[in-house]
Amino acid sequence: MKKWAYPLALVTFAVFLVMAFNYKSSSFIAFDERIASILRGNEFIGLFHYLGETVFVAIVTLMVFFYFWLKEKNYRVMLYVVLTMAAGTAINQGLKAFFERQRPEIAEQLTSYSFPSGHSQMSVLYLFMLAYLFSKITTNHKRTTLVWIAAIVLACLIGLSRIAESRHFATDVLAGWSIGYTWFIICVIWYELRDRKYKQLRE
Fold first, then answer.
1. Taking 70 as the threshold, does the pLDDT of residue 171 lie above it?
2. DSSP per-residue string spanning 59-124
3. pTM over 0.70
């Protein structure tokens, strides 16, 4: 991880707080309406929501978990995966219950709360987790860079798909990305501290 990636989590947490306590303001309502008018009905972007569906994310998470359990026997990574994804899901559900923001008004809308976007938050978590773990098992800098770029682009498209389909407001999506990245870095710090301690004990 680049050194700047760690303090960036403080910035994204600040962005989340701004969204959380100001999304009802007239300026952010206008922002939501503006972004929605641009993206609403975009069928291509809408397709990317499938990559953020709960079942898909769960399958990817389990595949990673079992790979590091059965093949690598790396229990630290297994705990990292659980901390990132399971706790990340709990955080998202807790925040939704706390803010109780209703979704955009459309026919056949989802009944769960809107803020922050689960697709946005969990896409950052699972895609960035995959990119981070890939960077730990390869020394090819070019491949690592390409994987990170792909993770960022896909996370952005998954979040935007929720606006395109009128499932979320733009502020929901921005908050989801922000708190997702913050939690991702917290989990990375936890993992790296544990990994460093383990290596010191082995020495």
1. yes
2. HHHHHHHHIIIIIS--HHHHHHHHHHHHHHHHHHHHHHHHH-PPPP--TT--SS--SS-HHHHHHH
3. yes
